[in-house]
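Minutes, structural biology subgroup

Action item carried over from last meeting: produce the structure token record for Zinc-binding dehydrogenase (Candidatus Stercoripulliclostridium merdipullorum). EB confirmed the sequence was re-checked against the source entry. Recorded below for completeness.
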Amino acid sequence: MKYFSTSGDRTLVAGEGVQDETDLVRLKISMVVPCASDLALYEGKVPLAKPRIPGHMATAVVSEDREEYGLKLGARVMINPYILSTKDAEGYSKVGVYGLNADGFLRDFIALPIDNIVPFPEDVKEQEALFAEAVSVALAAFNSFRVEKGEYIAVVGGSVLGIIAAQLALYYQAIPILISNDRRYLEIASKCGVYYVIDEAAENTARRVMEITGGRMADHTIVHDKAGVTPNFLFTLAAHGSDCVVMSLNDTMPRLEVDLSLAVQKNLTVKGVSCGCDEFNSAVNLIAQKQLDFSHFIDKVVPFAESGDLFRSLSDNPDQYIAAAIRI
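Output recorded by EB:
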């Protein structure tokens, strides 16, 4: 097994090792999409007791016949990145994630429990399967409130996760409004069928949302907790008595500061979502139904040997790509 690990010193170190494969299924990793938490590991923003292999958004192929599981050599699979048997610093059970709470997928081979392996549904492409975790988190955000047909949902934050959330609003027959200061994401959202997009750098966002909603503001607001997002939109764009959700792919996220007085004045319900474990199977089904468009996300692919160069480049400029991928 060849891999890249980091000690949080802005370097990736190549290594080789052997993994205990007892009662596990051996996979050949196919592609990995680095995300913000991988960069947080790389940059030392996540405490590490020892070097860790990053990567939790990946696809793979089965590297051996496993008839007892109905898996054949060469079968393409999605990887469920969630670990159910981890504990937090106080010893309480929590849902962990490969690449954060255990070594991740930036390697050529890995052995995993069968529960973490999902065969590709028919006609699903790799560029779609790679984002199953993001879909599961967006689903968890939507399942934290009740969506009615025709309701307005303001999604704040230009990102793959934000665009997926906006598309989910369409799936639920709601009306999404995507807000970002990065025109690339607004253009992609429009290509994905999102009619209302707002460039917060060029427009008065609150006034525009008021115009779109006929003065009532958004029935639900969702903010992707990422660098550069405007957190106060969580409350300022929300209608009285509405739901407000802060979502992130996992619990490594930048600090957000908001004025809670507006939440009290408007009687808002505020929730946080950083895990899509319970929604992963639903995410796979949704991807299989071809309800979401992923075709505009991956705009950079590098070979495994250039992983260090890609991480270095992303650390210097995290926003240069919509979604970069590493071909193993």
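Discussion: The domain at 136-273 is CATH 3.40.50.720 (Rossmann fold).
Next step: EB to file the record with the rest of the batch.
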